[in-house]
Amino acid sequence: MKAAEPTQSRLSDLFNNRSNSLNLVRLFLAISVLASHSFPLSGTPQDWGQFQFVATLFSGGVMVDGFFALSGFLVGRSAAVSRSFSSFALNRIFRIFPGLFVCLLISGFLIAPIMSVIEDVPLKWYQPLHYIAFNFLTWPGQAMIGGLLTNVPFTLWINGSLWTLRWEVLAYISLWLLMRWRSQPNWFVVLLASFYGITDYLASSTQVFSSLPSEATELIVDGSRLGFMFLIGVAFYRFSNQIKVSPRIALVCAALFVGCTMLPNYRTLGGVPLAYLLLCAGNLLLSPAWLQRNDLSYGVYIYAFPIQQLFVLANLNFGQPWLLTLEAAILTLAMAFLSWRFIEKPAMNRVKPFVSNWLSQHSSAVWKES
User: Which among 146, 143, 142, 156 has a CA at the least distance from the CA of 119?
Assistant: First the structure.
């Protein structure tokens, strides 16, 4: 008698079994971003000497890349099963913006006034409103509120994580346009990802774009990097029925990824192994049942930075990055839970019947499976 086939043998099985561990993987990435930020926010350099690749391996940049790969995988499916642009857009809007709006309110009207008292810097009534208005739509964004945070090591941002949200929203829009224009986009997605990967390599490892204005160069660097990782995730979704989940392949990908962190730009050769590794982890790892039903990663990501800045300003971490990580993680997880329980999840639950009723006349997905 043959042994039973293992469950969840392909990436597509992640959607067939709600007991997957993607929420656990994303929470790990979010907390890792928090930990990596603790060093610059506390003014502590990460000097690994000849083992500098370790800093790359566990850097917030790598974790953000992983976020975008997983986002491409999950949002790729969301777009494929959506019955129209309106249903896709509403689901994305209600996933991102309610939690963001409340986070901005708390940052502007609670965290900023506390910072104002600690620094003895006057805060005008309209400055928090200005901050909320400029950051809610993710673009153009505003880094500071008034003259706060002049007495901390990192004075550039109150919330330095919000800049990636504009690229996330742009990725959603671009994905829908891709679906509208290409009826059989599987290999086109691979070609497009390759184009972004080449651009990412040129922007980060060569002087090809050095003659452009700094603002344009920054847009190319950020857009090609995050677009590359997002499209890798979309490509993995498009081929998820053919890609097997294998611990052996995952080990090979882990070795490739670690090796690539020694390169000037690990993503060129290590972006695909990283994405496969994260998706396999979401398939193979065991996760608490509660966490499978509750996604705290977004709340952790958007609340961590201002909480860390507040702790540093109040000197509650005593200049120690690991103490800052521990303190901030506790409060950030609590805020993330409240955000999920009372803002994010209710918003998504309310939009689903609304979308279903409003768009009942649309009966087919625009991106057909090939």
Answer: 146
